[in-house]
Write a structure and sequence with these properties.
CATH architecture of the largest domain: 3-Layer(aba) Sandwich
Order of helices and strands: HEEEHEHEHEEH
CATH topology of the largest domain: Glutaredoxin
Structural class: alpha/beta
CATH class of the largest domain: Alpha Beta
Number of helices: 5
Strand content: 15-25%
Helix content: 25-40%
Radius of gyration: 21 Å
Length: 170
C-alpha cells in the first residue's frame, strides 16, 4: 500500500513538472521576422559588452545590417552605409550586426575602415535565427515604431541604398 502511494506521488510530481515545463516553454514565444509585424528582439551586445535593444533607437528608422568580416559584399557596402548614416543621422540609424565568431577582431576592422555607426555582435546567432538570416549581407528596415518594413538579401549598390534612405527620410 505504501509503495502504491509513493508511486502515485511520484506520478503526480512528474505530471506537475511536465505541466510547468509546457507552460513555461509556451510562454517563450519563438520570434521570427515577418515584414509588417513587429521586429524581433535583438540578442546582441555592443563591442564593449553591453546589451543592446532596438528601443535605444525608437523614434528613428533602423537599417539593421547583418555582416561578416569574411564577406566581400558586406565590406563593399560599408563605406556607403557610413556615408548614408552620416547624411541621414537625424532620421535613420544604421546598426551593423556582426556575425563572426569570437576570434574576429571586429573593432580593428571597423577602425581601419573608419566606420562610426553602431555595431553589435551576434556571437550566439540568436538574432540571426530570429531574423532568419541565411547569408550576409542581409539587411532589414525597421520603422520608428518598431515594425519590420523590408528585408534586403545580398549586397546593394549605392543607388539602391540611397533610394532606401531617401524614401525613409520622408
Amino acid at each position: 500500500m505504501l509503495t502504491n502511494r509513493k508511486l502515485l506521488g511520484s506520478k503526480i510530481l512528474a505530471g506537475i513538472f511536465l505541466l510547468t515545463a509546457v507552460l513555461f516553454l509556451g510562454g517563450c514565444k519563438e520570434e521570427k521576422a515577418r515584414v509588417g509585424a513587429s521586429a524581433p528582439t535583438l540578442a546582441v551586445y555592443d563591442l564593449q559588452g553591453n546589451k543592446v535593444s532596438l528601443d535605444q533607437w525608437k523614434g528613428k528608422y533602423v537599417y539593421l545590417n547583418f555582416w561578416a568580416s569574411n564577406c566581400g559584399g558586406c565590406l563593399a557596402e560599408m563605406p556607403t552605409l557610413e556615408k548614408l548614416s552620416q547624411t541621414y543621422r537625424d532620421n535613420i540609424v544604421v546598426v551593423g550586426v556582426n556575425t563572426d565568431q569570437d576570434d574576429a577582431n571586429v573593432q580593428a576592422l571597423l577602425r581601419e575602415r573608419s566606420i562610426t555607426f553602431p555595431n553589435v555582435r551576434d556571437q550566439l546567432a540568436i538574432t540571426q535565427e530570429r531574423y532568419q538570416v541565411i547569408g550576409t549581407p542581409t539587411s532589414f528596415l525597421i520603422s520608428p515604431d518598431g515594425k519590420l518594413l523590408a528585408q534586403y538579401v545580398g549586397m546593394l549598390q549605392e543607388p539602391q541604398l540611397k533610394a532606401i534612405f531617401e524614401q525613409s527620410n520622408g
